[in-house]
Amino acid sequence: MTDLAERRGLDLDVYQPAEDSGLLAAAAVEGAHGRVLEVGTGSGWVAERIREECGLRVVGSDRNPNAARQAGERGVEAVVGDLLDPFVADAFDTVCFNPPYLPTDPDNEWDDWMEQALSGGETGRELIDPFLADVDRVLAPDGVVFLLVSSLTGYEEVLALIEAAGFDHAVAVEESFPFETLTVLRLTRAG
After folding, report:
1. In this predicted structure, what is the pLDDT of residue 154?
2. Which of 17, 57, 78, 171 is a Cys-bridge partner for 68, taking CB atoms 3.0 to 4.6 Å apart?
3. What would you measure as the largest C-alpha separation in the chain, in angstroms?
């Protein structure tokens, strides 16, 4: 696998497009507008789809410098940073996030970039809570958020976090797989 990935120019430390990526891209292409941010951009594939299919300027961010580099190779303006920390208030009209959502026993976690791209901590919601606590700050007044949620993370618990953060939600797209259901929620400010 390493030889094949290297021949294809893939970085094994960077999350590559999968079913969840396709769902997030489909929802965002349908509803993104204005200035777009993809948090946790990984390879930059989703950001590239939005840019190419909507003609919008898209910025990607990721904690992993290898991901930011790979997204940049796709022509995506990419920033190395933790969640929304690098960005100023009211900077984006659309924010997209496919968070690491696999529930992981802390005793079984590895200390590498791919683990960080997949593991959502014990509940699968480790990064969803801080994201929701801060996304309102970077969102323009009529902004929208597309958040991918797995049934493995506790769907009802995520909805409670969304409501506590002051957002209304609607299902943008949803697909069931043998072991989970993936849903992209469209969030707008409540009221």
Report:
1. 87
2. 78
3. 53
Strands (E), 55-154: 58-62, 77-80, 92-97, 139-150
Give the pairing of strands 58-62 and 77-80.
parallel
Element (H, E) at 179: none
Q: Reduced to 3 states, what is the DSSP secondary structure of residue 51? A: helix
The model's pTM: 0.86
pLDDT in tens, 5-52: 443 445 557 766 678 889 999 999 999 999 999 998 988 999 999 999
For residue 120, is pLDDT > 50?
no
Task: Locate 184 and state its tokens.
Answer: 């992209």
Q: Which of 42, 176, 54 is nearest to 97 (CA)?
A: 42
Token pair 């992981």 is found at 104
List domains and CATH numbers for the chain: 2-189 (3.40.50.150)
